[in-house]
Amino acid sequence: MSNLKILVVDDDPVTRSLFTKRLEAAEYTVHTAENGLVAVEKIGQQFYDVVLTDLMMPGGVDGIGVLEASKQNNIKTEVILITAHASVNNAIEAMKKGAVDYLQKPINFDELFLRLDKIHNLKMLVKNASDLREAMDVTEKTSAETIQDLEITVAELKQRMDAIKAALMKADVDAATRIRLAIEALSK
């Protein structure tokens, strides 16, 4: 389905296992962390496209802490917070800190897969836009170089034409000498 690399962060081993099985079955690359501290360590070691993290976890780093660490490490990492205790305040706080989405337990995997597809599609659009921008930059640079080369060639040809014209216009020499001078100007 996608080549997104996902980090699942949850203190419940059953939940981690369920996420891993469902996401791997959908052909996502899945890594797990059993708490926020382990998640922050993993986030610092490698890039994840998406971090799915439980909001409430013991151990000093909760889902908001994982979100903050994810965004601090790489702004391109998308974070989806998962909680059994949904509240508008939690959702607002998470969105202000950069979460892309917010899901309630028990997880509706169809809904999760739709959101992951949306993230994947957005990342592909951004990559395509970046590739197009790079191609345009290369094209623009090449065009500028070609135009500069053509301007130099035109200037050189104009000089030759002026020299040929001057040679042919010399009234003080015979026609054979004018032609010889014009041919010399042409071959420079």
UniProtKB/TrEMBL annotation:
The modification 4-aspartylphosphate is found at residue 54. Keywords: Coiled coil, DNA-binding, Phosphoprotein, Transcription, Transcription regulation, Two-component regulatory system. GO terms for cellular component: cytosol; protein-DNA complex. The keyword DNA-binding applies. InterPro entries: CheY-like_superfamily, Sig_transdc_resp-reg_receiver, WalR-like. Gene3D superfamilies: 3.40.50.2300. The keyword Cell cycle does not apply. GO terms for molecular function: phosphorelay response regulator activity; transcription cis-regulatory region binding. This is Response regulatory domain-containing protein.
